[in-house]
């Protein structure tokens, strides 16, 4: 029983950081906004590819618990958000 409780506590600790990260929620939101944007098809395609790369980088950062990868992925996200807002 103690082992089960300890395992649950560890899972909660490690998943909490991913749930608290804004990239976890914003990547899907930005994908929807990009699809609905007025950008040209070529621009949408290029940004969608970059968004996928950024999201993969974000997931990798969480898997490795690498804050630098997560920060880099959030820069990609912010850059795409800025381009959609124009």
Write up what this structure looks like:
- The chain is mainly alpha-helical.
- It has helices spanning about 1-20, 20-35, 40-65, 65-85.
- The relative contact order is 0.14.
- Residues about 1-15 have low confidence and may be disordered.
Shape: elongated
Question: How does the major sheet shape up?
Answer: none
Q: State the end-to-end distance.
A: 55 Å
| Extended strand count | 0
Low-confidence spans: 1-17
Radius of gyration: 16 Å
Mean pLDDT comes to 84
Helix content: over 70%
User: How do the SSEs run, as a string of H and E?
Assistant: HHHH
Number of helices: 4
Structural classification: mainly alpha
Question: Which percent band covers the strand fraction?
Answer: under 5%
Furnish the topology, listing elements before pairings.
Layout (H helix, E strand, L loop, with lengths): L1 H19 L1 H15 L4 H24 L2 H19 L1
Helix pairs in contact: 2-3, 2-4, 3-4
List keywords for this structure.
86 residues; 90% helix; 4 helices; mainly alpha; elongated; disordered N terminus; single chain
Question: What does this entry show, briefly?
Answer:
The chain has four helices and no strands.
């Amino acid at each position: 029983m103690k082992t089960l409780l300890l395992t649950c506590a560890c899972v909660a600790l490690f998943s909490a950081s991913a749930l608290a990260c804004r990239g976890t929620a914003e990547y899907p939101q930005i994908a929807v906004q990009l699809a609905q944007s007025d950008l040209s098809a070529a621009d949408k395609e290029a940004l969608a590819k970059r968004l996928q790369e950024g999201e993969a980088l974000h997931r990798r950062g969480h898997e490795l618990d690498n804050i630098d990868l997560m920060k880099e992925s959030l820069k990609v996200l912010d850059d795409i958000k800025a381009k959609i807002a124009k």
